[in-house]
Amino acid sequence: MTKLFVGGLPYSVDNxxxxxxxxxxxxxxxxxxxxxxxxxxxxxxxxxxxxxxGAAQQAIKALDGTDCDGRKLGVSxxxxxxxxxxxxxxxxxxx
Length: 95
What we know:
It is a single chain. The chain is of the alpha+beta class and 95 residues long. Helices cover 21% and strands 33% of the residues. The strands form 2 sheets. It has a 4-stranded antiparallel sheet with strand order 2-3-1-6, with helices on one face. It has a single domain, classed as 2-Layer Sandwich (Alpha-Beta Plaits). The chain contains 2 helices and 6 strands, in the order E-H-E-E-H-E-E-E.
C-alpha cells in the first residue's frame, strides 16, 4: 500500500472527487482532503492511499504537474508524519 500526498487541489475538491481522480489508476483504499478545523474550508491538499504500489506510481506520473481547475497539482509519495510536541501557547518561563 502506498500513501500519496496531493497538493494544489482546488478548494472545490472533496473526498469523493479526490477518490475519483485516482480510481482511474487502481484501487483507492482511502482519499481525504484536509480541511481547516475552524473554517471548515479545504486547505488545498490531501492524501490518497492506493492498494498497489505500481498503480500509485502510474498516478504520480499521470497527475503530477497537471492542471486541475486552474491549479497545478503536485503528487508524490507522502513522507512519514513527524510527531511534533503540542505547544499550549503558555510560556512557563514568564510566570
